[in-house]
Amino acid sequence: MPPIPKRPIILLTVLVLGLIYILTPTSTSSYFDAITLRRKTTVPEIYGVIHLVTGNAEHTLAHDVTHDPTKPVDMRVYAVDGDGKGGDMDWVAERQRIDTEYPIVIFSKSYCPYSRRLKALLLSPSSPQYPTPAPPLPPHIASLPPVQPLSPPPIVIEVDLRDDAAQIKTLLTRITGRGTFPNMLVLGESIGGADDVLAMHERGELVDLLESKGITVGADS
Fold it and tell me: Which of 19, 90, 185, 200 could be 105's S-S partner, Cβ–Cβ 3.0 to 4.6 Å?
């Protein structure tokens, strides 16, 4: 049998490999699509909670019976589209937005004396969320230089006024390890409640912490 020419074999091999590349689902574009999807979801779940409570007021978890807040929740549940329904979101970009606009988030209860004390420490008296009447701070705290006004100012979430208060409390307990109020978050990390924050301020650590996170203390705003 005469030898088979090498050139047709090489051409046939190239053609077969090209067809496999084109027809295989795991193409280069699919690979990068998977990487993009992964980037959109590898964000701590607390940012889903913050997005939920600072976004569309009509989007709550009150009637969500399909997800157990004691276990990790799909981030799509927290997302809100134009119709007020959950959906996909670029969570990497959303995390950056939240950290820029809301670097300090205080989960509070409107009637809680500890929550009111923390708000009196951190909020400017001109803020609509400043407690009235303002509770007196302990003398050793009141004598220290004021922390506020802060820029950006803290955003306060009055959990007890939401119809999904029970779900939010359960989520915060699981995610932050803290189930009491207030619960103060700085760039998505809980730094504790009123007593913890007041103690940090007394030790001279609070201002340093806030400034290290890019928050301006004593801002003229």
Answer: 185
Rounded CA-CA distance 61/78 in Å is: 9
Residue 113 identity (one-letter amino acid): P
Residue-wise pLDDT for 159-212, tens only, equals 999 999 999 999 999 999 999 999 999 999 999 999 999 999 999 999 999 999
Give the position of tokens 């574009």.
Answer: 29
% of the chain with per-residue pLDDT over 70 = 77
Q: Please tell me the pTM assigned to this model.
A: 0.79
Helix, strand, coil percentages, rounded to 5, for the chain:
45, 10, 45
**Which residue, 80, 103, 104, 93, is CA-closest to 43?**
93
Judged on CB neighbours under 10 Å (0-12, 13-18, 19+), 38 is exposed
Cα separation, 139 vs 119, whole angstroms: 17
Other C-beta atoms within 10 Å of 71: how many? 7
Alpha helices in the chain (DSSP H): 6-23, 28-41, 46-54, 91-101, 113-122, 139-142, 165-176, 194-202, 206-212
155 secondary structure, DSSP code: E
How does DSSP classify residue 183? E
Give pLDDT tens digits for 49-81. 999 999 877 789 988 888 899 999 999 999 865
